[in-house]
Amino acid sequence: MDEYTKKQLSIIIGWITRKKRPGFVLITAGVAILSVKSAINFAITGTFSWGTLSIGTAEGNFVTDFIVPLIGITLCIFGLFFISISEIQSHRLNSRKRLILITGDGLRTTLGTGFETLARKTLKGTVYSVPIDITQRIHDGLIIDPESTFKRQILPAKENIGQLIENSTPEYTQVAYGGFLPVPFTFFLGNILDDKGNITVFDWDRQDEVWRLISEENIDDGECFIQEKIKTLPSKEIVLILSCSYKVSIEQVENSFKGMSIEHLRLENNSFGNHWSLTKQRRLALEFAEKIKSFSDRGIQTIHLILAAQSSLALNLGRRYDSRNMPEIIVYQYERTGPSPYPWGIYGLSHEHEDGGFIKHNNSAP
User: Fold this and answer.
1) Helix (H/G/I), strand (E/B), else coil: 340
2) How does strand 261-266 pair with strand 126-133?
């Protein structure tokens, strides 16, 4: 089944299974009754040797002329009443809600892409924007000064997000993210958000060039990580590779992290569109967390993470990293050109790195 067919099937299933509002159900039923009443009016006339015979409802009767239309009109009126009540309640609730909208502009910008419009339409409430714009620090796809960028723009965003969430009432607070930041920064933002309520994540659809919601309504293909042990050496450090949107070059990793054990979690289908199901992302994030936990049980102290994944998945993987109980983790940036394919990384939040941290990397040791 091709991607287009999957997408259309997902839309149809979503429409069939989505929650129906009572007001619209009543109006639909009322209109259907009125339509059926008109449709069942018929008359059949036959001429026979003994005379003419007419059969039908064209002349009407008390039931078809009065009772049926009355039922249809009554259902429509009640439907409008319920819709009005629902809209009033929704307006009152939305006036109390706040939407913390985090945007990441880097490898490209969200401006003019319709992201904020979609987010406002999907999640109602007063918007509190947290823009993270590093576009001025990127040249030809490379971050000019990643350490300064992390300290001056990512860390302040961490404080801003934390304050907004702490000063909000949990049941009336929504958090949404969409952006084009490098993978280490996106994973770090996931660390920040952690388990702070329900986080809504959007991602960029490269095929249709629109923003899409990562949703439970999108079809879950059931795909799980395939686990591979590439190299096993006695060490307190290990390299974990995740191949989701791309297949990571094992040879490049071996050359960049010499003297370390290497394990690989990969999806069989490495494509840009294999991540739209929220159910799938939750499953993959849990598998990732279980793998990290197994490293902790083996006495591993530092994990070097090589991650090739879509923005939304990188964020959700970061949310599942338990900074309190798991080994320290460093997420590396991939650069296709240059002396090292993994020139720098960002520490995940942990007891030893409460504000994360920046690290340069060479081919011999991180």
Assistant:
1) coil
2) unpaired
In 3-state terms, what secondary structure has residue 330?
Answer: strand
Contact in structure between 359 and 237 (CB atoms under 8 Å): no
In this predicted structure, the answer to whether residue 90 has a pLDDT above a threshold of 70 is no
116 in Cβ contact with 101 (< 8 Å): yes
The answer to which of 56-60, 198-202, 268-272 has the lowest mean pLDDT is: 56-60
Q: Are 86 and 156 in contact (CB under 8 A)?
A: no
Residue 339 backbone dihedrals phi, psi, to 5 degrees: -65, -30
Q: What is the mean pLDDT of the chain?
A: 85
Burial class (CB in 10 A: 0-12, 13-18, 19+), 238: buried
Contact criterion met (CB below 8 Å) for 261 and 287: no
Q: Regarding predicted confidence, which is higher, 197 or 283?
A: 283
Taking the C-alpha atoms of residue 218 and residue 209, their distance in angstroms, rounded to an integer, is 18
Q: What is the mean pLDDT of residues 51-75?
A: 64
Q: Bigger pLDDT: 164 or 96?
A: 164
Structure tokens at 203: 């991602």
**Alpha-carbon distance values, 140 to 8, 33, 103, 335 (Å):** 36, 63, 21, 11
CB 366 within 8 A of CB 236: no
Confidence of residue 114 (pLDDT cuts 50, 70, 90): very high
Tokens of residue 52, six digits: 């003419």
Alpha carbon distance 308, 351 (integer Å) = 26
CA distance 191 to 318: 5
Which residue from 143, 149, 156, 131 is spatially nearest to 107, judged by alpha carbons? 143
- Residue 129 phi, psi (nearest 5): -85, 140
Q: What is the pLDDT of residue 15?
A: 47
Instruction: Give the dihedral of Cα atoms 342, 333, 355, 352; nearest 10 deg.
Output: -40
Distance CA 175, CA 173 (A): 7
Rounded Cα distance, 319 and 330, in Å: 14
Report helix, strand or coil for 190.
Answer: helix
Q: 229 with 263: CB under 8 angstroms?
A: yes
